[in-house]
Design a protein that fits this description.
Strand order of the largest sheet of chain A: 1-2
Strand content of chain B: under 5%
Structural class of chain B: mainly alpha
Helix content of chain B: over 70%
CATH superfamily of chain B: Cytochrome c oxidase, subunit III, four-helix bundle
Number of domains of chain B: 1
Largest interface: A-B, 63 and 49 residues
CATH class of chain B: Mainly Alpha
Strand content of chain A: under 5%
CATH architecture of chain B: Up-down Bundle
Number of strands of chain A: 2
CATH class of the largest domain in chain A: Mainly Alpha
CATH architecture of the largest domain in chain A: Up-down Bundle
Largest sheet of chain A: 2 strands, antiparallel
Bound molecules: protoporphyrin IX containing FE, copper (II) ion
Radius of gyration of chain A: 25 Å
Order of helices and strands of chain B: HHHHHHH
Structural class of chain A: mainly alpha
Distance between the termini of chain B: 45 Å
Shape of chain A: globular
Helix content of chain A: 55-70%
Oligomer: heterodimer
Radius of gyration of chain B: 22 Å
Chain lengths: 598, 205
């Protein structure tokens, strides 16, 4: 521990850089509404994302009611079901998870954890949120236009997405495309901030390799998003033109209801390539921040340094790079050249290597750790198992021969919910329980938290495990009603009913969670300054919860974020910004100076 | 330090001395707005490359009927080149503190860009008049898509240009506006290269 005893270094002069000029809000409106403070923007992003996420959740209940008890709910018609599926998928993936991880956690945590006063371009950051809000409003508006929202499936495949017969062909699809375009513009504004703040605004001593893994995850995910969203952007623009101006980017010569349409010569497959060139990295845009956050939460709540920090960073970068060359594994059934299939299957399997490495490292971090079974820790463990589970079914689906029969069945639905639905949502929950005290100054209620965790965790397995079996027997995905078939046994209907009941129970647990948040905001137990004894800078702010400008003097960083349970040190953690001469050594309350003198 | 040596550090071994020797802020030696601009340009590169790939993909399809290259398009290209040259001139003038020159050439560069945008608009008018509608063939559709996307990005650049002009009018010194001018120049060159690439693609096919 050479660096612990180094006394000279204790008096490092404060940063000589002129402090950044901070924007100061002048009125209530600029402080809480049109605010340029990343923390306020983060809360705005999170609340909007969670609100629209609740819409997505309710849609999933409606779908499950229909699947569990067909012919019971007369208000759900086939076209309604398609609309629910589409809006649910799109809302969950883009408007909830992407916005929450990057716009919410990214905005809140990046400046605090790298030791900056704010994002580097606060004005652009503010615009980012408002454009996002407009995107959400446009999306929501599509529920109220004639014909309702689009029912094309979240993949929006042409030609069906813009032809009659698909619900929402009139207005829904247009609003969906416009909303996505807006979302991408808004995201790009925010994304620039997240990346540049990490690169340029770190506190003194915060080298790249001292960044907490949370920041690494968000950082690389943002780069992925900045490079992947343009694909969705052109795809949306082209489809919008096809729909509105009658161009034929994606529209082949086609007959609709016996009538030859004016479209001619377009390429529907091109859309699939563009969509999945975005779509696969999107999985990692959601997963990488989750990876990062889990690494930090595990380390803090097991009081152990993360195992293989450098490997973890490199794995994040490797996964990010590889995720751009696997997209066509979503298109095995599109009639591609077998050599392409072979190539994409190979790259898909290769990506499992860095991913597995991360899993091993998490488990090794827990190994012999002083594990505190706090709620964040419980959610982290749940994440690890669930992600492993979804990852393994992913390996199967990555192989062409296995994917072809399973494609478009409930097996796929089970797979992607495990890996990018449930697992990242667990991390969102864990992160909220972990950082809620920082954001609000109050603790969330333990009891309700335990209830929320166990019901959600066990429930998620009861929901999605059976779905794998449904997929095996051939229950198709995106079907309003299966009806009579020769191959699906009657018992599948019982299983479906069971799943639906579980969904409603899990849904109730989420209501408890929301209630817990609201109640704790008002009368939760007051939090201590650093309730989890974490090492990272966000707990070392001038005020608690952090105020405008975050820090008093900008912090100086002396070490990485994982200095836990060091032998010879009194506390079981050393904050990143604690000067070496201030570290309390065990059995001696005096400073290190005397230790060295002895 | 290069990014590669930075990410091969071993943070758990590093001693405190490193910090003392470290620059006050360990950011990269480039002004923050320029880092931001570069990242934005990376995202835009993906956008235009994918558009070009889509174009190339469509060319292979049987219905593809290329459209003529109006003479005006060559003229516009020339105008865009001069616009970029003007901004480059302004950039070096700003660096040398020659405020008078900055004002003239920077303004001229923007006017040329406006001329380019008008020219592009005229080209599309001509083509529409000749009956090349976006809906009648993918080649036409792509022409309007590509020129449109490019023009939109340039229009976005005009906002930055306008803001810099107001700064110039409000009497900022050369050193105060050097960065703004530089950002505009970089963005202009980028869009020029994009245009040259797309233009070559379109006339050669
Ligand atoms: C309580 C939690 C959830 C439940 C009960 C649920 C249920 C469902 C159901 C029943 C479907 C339609 C299956 C079909 O007919 O094909 C579906 C589709 C989908 N879900 Fe979820 N879901 C939940 C959470 C999530 C989350 C968090 C995500 C985020 C990634 C997500 C992403 C998707 C996607 C992308 C689709 C596909 C939509 C499509 O086929 O176009 N879901 N979900
Ligand atoms: Cu994928």
């Amino acid at each position: 521990m050479a660096h612990v005893g180094d006394t000279q270094a204790g008096n490092i002069p404060l940063a000589e850089v002129p402090d950044v000029e901070l924007y100061h809000p002048k009125s209530w409106i600029t402080k809480y509404v049109f605010s340029q403070d990343a923390k306020v923007i983060a809360i705005q992003y999170s609340c909007t994302a969670i609100a629209i996420g609740l819409v997505g959740l309710v849609l999933s209940w409606l779908m499950r009611l229909q699947l569990g008890f067909p012919d019971t709910f007369s208000f759900i018609e086939a076209s309604d079901y398609y609309q629910y599926v589409t809006m649910h998928g799109m809302i969950m993936v883009i408007y909830l998870l992407t916005a929450l991880f990057l716009g919410g956690f990214g905005n809140y945590l990046i400046p605090l954890m790298v030791g900056a006063r704010d994002m580097v371009f606060p004005y652009v950051n503010m615009l980012s949120y408002w454009v996002y809000l407009i995107a959400v409003i446009v999306l929501t508006a599509s529920f109220f236009v004639p014909g309702g929202p689009t029912g094309a499936g979240w993949t929006l495949y042409p030609p069906q997405a813009i032809l009659s017969g698909t619900p929402g062909q009139e207005w829904g699809i247009i609003l969906m495309l416009v909303s996505l375009i807006l979302f991408i513009i808004g995201f790009t504004m925010g994304g620039l901030n997240y990346v540049v703040t990490v690169l340029q605004a770190r506190a003194r001593g915060m080298t790249l390799m001292r960044l907490p893994l949370t920041i690494w995850g968000i950082f690389v995910a943002t780069i992925l998003a900045l490079l992947a969203f343009p694909a969705l952007f052109v795809a949306c623009v082209m489809m919008l033109l096809d729909r509105v101006l009658g161009t034929s980017f994606f529209m082949p010569d086609i007959v609709e209801i016996g009538e030859q349409l004016a479209y001619t010569g377009g390429s529907p497959i091109l859309f699939q390539h563009l969509f999945w060139f975005f779509g696969h990295p999107e999985v990692y845009i959601v997963a990488l921040p989750a990876f990062g956050i889990v690494s930090d939460l595990i380390s803090v709540h097991a009081r152990k340094s993360i195992f293989g920090y450098r490997m973890m960073v490199w794995a994040i970068i490797a996964i990010g790079g590889l995720s751009f060359i696997v997209w066509a594994h979503h298109m095995y059934v599109s009639g591609m050249n077998p050599y392409f299939g072979f190539f994409f299957a190979t790259t898909t399997l290769i990506i499992a290597v860095p991913t597995a490495l991360k899993l091993y490292n998490w488990v090794l971090t827990l190994w012999k750790g002083n594990i505190h079974f706090t709620i964040p820790m419980l959610f982290c463990i749940a994440f690890i198992v669930t992600f492993l589970n979804g990852g393994i079914t992913g390996l199967f689906l990555g192989n062409v021969a296995v994917d072809v029969p399973l494609s478009d069945t409930m097996f796929v639905v089970a797979h992607f919910h495990m890996v990018m639905g449930v697992a990242p949502i667990f991390v969102v929950f864990g992160a909220i329980y972990h950082w809620f005290p920082l954001m609000s100054g109050r603790m969330l209620n333990e009891g309700m938290g335990k209830f929320h965790f166990w019901v959600t965790f066990v429930g998620a397995y009861l929901i999605y495990f059976p779905m794998h079996y449904l997929g095996f027997v051939g229950v198709p995905r995106r079907y309003y009603e299966v009806g009579e078939t020769s191959f699906i046994p009657d018992s599948a209907a019982d299983l479906n009913a069971f799943i639906t009941v579980m969904v409603l129970i899990v849904g109730f647990a989420q209501v408890v969670f929301i209630f817990n948040i609201i109640r704790s905001l008002i009368k939760g137990k007051l939090a201590e300054r650093n309730p989890w004894n974490a090492t990272t800078l966000e707990w070392q702010t001038a005020e608690f919860p952090p105020g405008h400008g975050n820090f008093g003097d900008l912090p100086v960083v002396y070490r990485w974020a994982y200095e836990f349970s060091l032998p010879g040190v009194k506390d079981d953690f050393i904050p990143q910004n604690l000067a070496p001469n201030l570290i309390n050594m065990a059995d001696d309350d005096d400073s290190v100076d005397e230790q060295v003198a002895e | 330090m290069s990014i590669f040596s930075q990410i091969s550090e071993k943070p758990w071994l590093e001693s405190v001395d490193n910090i003392i020797n470290m620059r006050p802020s360990n950011a990269f030696h480039v002004p923050t707005p320029i880092v931001g601009l570069r990242i934005l340009l990376a995202a835009m590169t993906v956008l235009f490359v994918l558009t070009a790939i889509s174009y190339a993909d469509h060319m292979r399809l049987p219905n593809w009927r290329p459209l003529p290259d109006p003479f005006l398009l060559w003229l516009n290209t020339l105008i865009l080149i001069t616009s970029s040259v003007a901004l480059q001139w302004a950039r070096s003038a700003a660096r040398h503190g020659d405020l008078g020159a900055v004002k003239k050439v920077f303004f001229a560069g923007g006017v040329l860009a406006i001329a380019f945008l008008l020219g592009q608009f005229l080209v599309s008018q001509q083509l529409v008049d000749m009956g090349y509608y976006a809906s009648s063939n993918s080649a036409n559709a792509f022409f309007y898509l590509i020129t449109g996307l490019h023009a939109l990005h340039l229009t976005g650049g005009m906002v930055a240009w306008g803001r810099t002009i107001t700064k110039l009018l409000r009497g900022f010194s050369a050193s105060q506006i050097a960065l703004s001018v530089e950002l505009c120049a970089i963005y202009w060159h980028f869009l020029l290269f994009v245009w040259l690439g797309l233009f070559t693609l379109m006339v050669s096919t």
